[in-house]
Amino acid sequence: VVDARHIDFIGSAGLQVVLAAAKELAAAGGKLVLASPTDAIRRVCEIAGVASVFECYPSIAGAVTALGSA
């Protein structure tokens, strides 16, 4: 779970790091999810075409709960 509530900006390098982490987690049977992403971060993910790579949840608790039931 990545707590994204205080991330106001993410550039291409930062997005690559998140995507690499998501890929590594998936290879190990895990999953990367974003908790509380700002509207700006959601828009960047949509524009970059990576919004389908990781799920977004409105809270950390919601993200943890979703992972626990997956």
Q: Could you explain the architecture of this structure?
A:
The chain has a three-stranded parallel β-sheet, with helices on one face. The longest helix has 16 residues, at 12-27. The mean pLDDT is 93. The protein is 50% helix and 11% strand. The protein has helices spanning 12-27, 39-48, 60-68; strands at residues 2-3, 33-35, 55-57. It is mainly alpha-helical and 70 residues long.
Separation of termini? Answer: 13 Å
Largest sheet: 3 strands, parallel
Tell me, rounded to a whole number, the average pLDDT: 93
Q: What is the assembly state of the chains in this entry? A: single chain
CA-based gyration radius? 11 Å
Number of helices: 3
Shape estimate: globular
What's the β-strand tally? 3
Report a brief summary of the structure.
This protein has 70 residues and is mostly helical. It is built from three helices and three strands.
